[in-house]
Amino acid sequence: MKCFCSDCASNASTTTRRCFKDLWIFENFSEGQMNELQKIGLKRSIRAGSPVFTQGSPANEIFLIKVGRIKLTKIHKDGAEITLDFRKAGDVLGEDVFSGESDYPLGAWALEDTVTCGFELRDFNALVLKRPDIGLNLIKSLGVKLSSVTGRLDSMAENSLENRLHRILSQVAREHGTKVEGGFELGFPLTHEELGFLVGAHRVSVTRAMRSLTGCGKVVRKGRKLVLPLIF
Known about the structure:
Blueprint: H1 5-8, H2 31-38, E1 42-46, E2 51-53, E3 61-67, E4 69-75, E5 81-88, E6 92-93, E7 107-110, E8 114-120, H3 121-130, H4 132-142, H5 146-156, H6 161-176, E9 178-180, E10 183-186, H7 192-199, H8 203-215, E11 220-222, E12 225-229
Antiparallel strand pairs: 1-8, 2-7, 3-6, 3-8, 4-5, 4-7, 9-10, 10-12, 11-12
């Protein structure tokens, strides 16, 4: 990609200098192949609260989050919106464009001012027609994504809601939290309703489970933020 690292540098805690060349999705790419990707690079700035893309809109772009944090959501037929996951600086967003999906199956919203770099699918497809080796290398890397999905499925298999909630919070804290003394702090609030969607439980049940987790010290509250002690 055309490197925007210097443009994206800031004092924000959610800034990364990672480039596409550093990510697993392009780990099999040669320097020459990455140079080809540079030619189709795009930079976007999204204000907090604004959509990166909406559910049902054409799936036509892949992003690397350079600055900021993004929430992934899903709207059901009854109009209920659920929180599926969170992505931070250094993560890739929009990988579904490679699956053949014509529309985004979910929505992505900036939790804070966000900067991304990436490329449009039509430009990538045109590049693959000229360089089939680039498409083959991408296919080799996409399987790695299954490990994250497997981890979430393992968490959902927990019989105890408290254990399930703790595992999900621990995973989110490790992936999106900030290292503090004694654990990881989540820098953004999570409502009990959002947690309920993540663990597949009602909000009231999540409230009881959170009360139990904070009571035994597995989760510590700091205002509206949560700290997961290093016991996992």
